[in-house]
Design a protein that fits this description.
The chain is an alpha/beta fold. It is 38% helix and 18% strand. It is elongated. 32% of the residues are buried.
């Protein structure tokens, strides 16, 4: 699929062409109305941008139960845990959306950054489950936002927290409100998460 800049004054207005009609990529922002393809549209050729836009267009594999893998992704340990948990679910036949698979750097364009934002919104909206990594002394702010959005959209929420500090001190457990959004379904192993997903 080819992507184009649909408006020279709006760097986020990316479009794709289908049957001679251009449609906005970010339907959440621009809606779904199309306009006839024009030869003067500038094709987006940057590899990083094309990969991000393609991931936005198709966040999940067709025909499988979709799972959004929420959680912090800002250090090696977080990313390793997220990837391991995602791989486990993929091996069981789920299709997962793992936000860290599209990386933003300090050199990323505003369009790539927007794609990451809108693809997260879209992937949560299309998911059946949110499996949420809540490890750490305090829940990551973005993760808390993902939980809140998932709850508001009626998604099945299953929280994962293997942090051993849970066993010694109540201070390190989840915020009561955040846990309540998931009916306090907080599990310390992926085995328990998988069982809970089948029961929710």
């Amino acid at each position: 699929m080819k992507f184009y800049l649909g408006n020279s004054t709006d760097p986020l207005f990316a479009v794709y062409e289908k049957d001679g009609i251009c449609y906005p990529v970010f339907a959440e922002k621009y809606g779904t109305d199309g306009f006839p393809f024009r030869a003067d549209l500038e094709e987006i050729t940057d590899e990083e941008t094309n990969e991000a836009l393609a991931k936005y267009m198709t966040p999940y594999e067709d025909g499988k139960v979709a799972v959004y893998m929420a959680g912090p992704l800002f250090n090696e340990g977080d990313r390793y845990t997220n990837q391991r948990n995602s791989d486990r679910l993929r091996a069981l036949g789920y299709t997962t959306f793992l936000p860290q698979e599209v990386v933003i750097t300090n050199k990323s364009s505003v369009l790539v950054k927007a794609a990451c934002f809108y693809m997260d919104l879209k992937a949560i909206r299309l998911a059946t489950y949110l499996v949420v990594n809540c490890n750490g002394i305090e829940i990551d702010s973005g993760t808390a936002a993902e939980i809140g959005l998932g709850y508001g959209l009626g998604k099945k929420l299953v929280l994962y927290k293997s942090d051993v500090r849970n066993y010694y001190n109540e201070t390190f457990r989840l915020n009561n409100f955040v846990g309540g959004l998931a009916d306090n379904r907080v599990y310390s192993t992926m085995d328990d998460v998988i069982v809970a997903m089948r029961e929710v």
